[in-house]
Amino acid sequence: MKDSIISVQNLKKSYGKHTVLDGLNFEVERGSIFALLGENGAGKTTTVRILATLIQADSGIATIAGYDTHRESESVKQKISLTGQYASVDELLTGEENLVMMGRLNHLSSNTVKKRTAELLDQFELTNAAKKRVKTYSGGMRRRLDIAISLLASPQVIFLDEPTTGLDPRSRRNMWNLIQQLAKNGVTIFLTTQYLEEADQLADKIAVIDSGKMVEEGTAEELKRMIGDEKVELTFDNAKEFQQASELLQGQVSEVEQRISIPAGSPESLRKLLNTLHEHGIEPSSVNFRKPTLDDVFMDITSRKRKEQSVHA
Ligand SMILES: Nc1ncnc2c1ncn2[C@@H]1O[C@H](COP(=O)(O)OP(=O)(O)OP(=O)(O)O)[C@@H](O)[C@H]1O
Questions:
Q1: Recorded GO terms, molecular function (predicted)?
Q2: CA distances from 181 to 63, 141, 164, 173, 220 (A)
Q3: Among 22, 66, 281, 302, which one is most buried in terms of CB atoms within 10 A?
Q4: The complex's ipTM?
Q5: DSSP 8-state secondary structure symbol assigned to residue 122
Q6: Residues 206, 219 contacting (CB under 8 angstroms)
Q7: Distance CA 218, CA 222 (A)
Q8: pLDDT at residue 86 above 50?
């Protein structure tokens, strides 16, 4: 049987007439990395804030390690930590001083604070910068210190709100390694992200929410499988031919790249398709095969949603 550390059942939250969460359900397995994905305003932050006991749901149940986030919020607080937009580090203090100060605020003994500070500085590769003021730190170093602080009290669940937003590609990769390391050590990671690639790389399970409802849930592979096999990408140098091809073919069109993606299908159907283009005097400049990505899943979900909305309109 699966060991859930977070359980959410029929969670609802409205602000006035605006329904933000509309009966959300999901489970997060202990020690896993769970990614909550959704467009702006989908309800991600609201979900995190309820789970982190910062606000209350109107109805439904959310538990962490068996404790109710509303009725047993004090017990929940001892199991979790929150980083991202909520946490802040003091710019005028050094990295080490920040850790020591937060350790004391967390009521840890001075021996524990000393030991954890040294461990965390080492784990987050901040030992060399320990005695430097945080205002001299790069974005990646600040983010690492922020997470280090949140780990002082050894939480079971850590909420990471868009942990790599604004980081350069190298710092992003480092942060991904770090998150994977935390999960290996048994910490459950609840991640919100706007980067599909991030969810693809990190998450054991991905939940896609829209208008406060779960629209898809599964592993990255399961989500990709939902939309079929390999894709063929046709790219065009000639703008007119690209427009004509977009009208002839049923596919995902990228206007910027002048590219059309379609399901690969059989060799026979691909030959027919290229013949059709040829008969119209259209020649793609390149033809490439690629596996579906989470971007395709998103495109598929949003186009399905648009179709449903136009049927109900
Ligand atoms: N305190 C509040 N009062 C009124 N409306 C709110 C409040 N908090 C959130 N909302 C609204 O609830 C909706 C969902 O917000 P939420 O922040 O959960 O979305 P999100 O998925 O995290 O989006 P983003 O990626 O933009 O942070 C938004 O339309 C937002 O305007």
A1: ATP binding; ATP hydrolysis activity
A2: 25, 17, 16, 12, 19
A3: 22
A4: 0.94
A5: H
A6: yes
A7: 6
A8: no
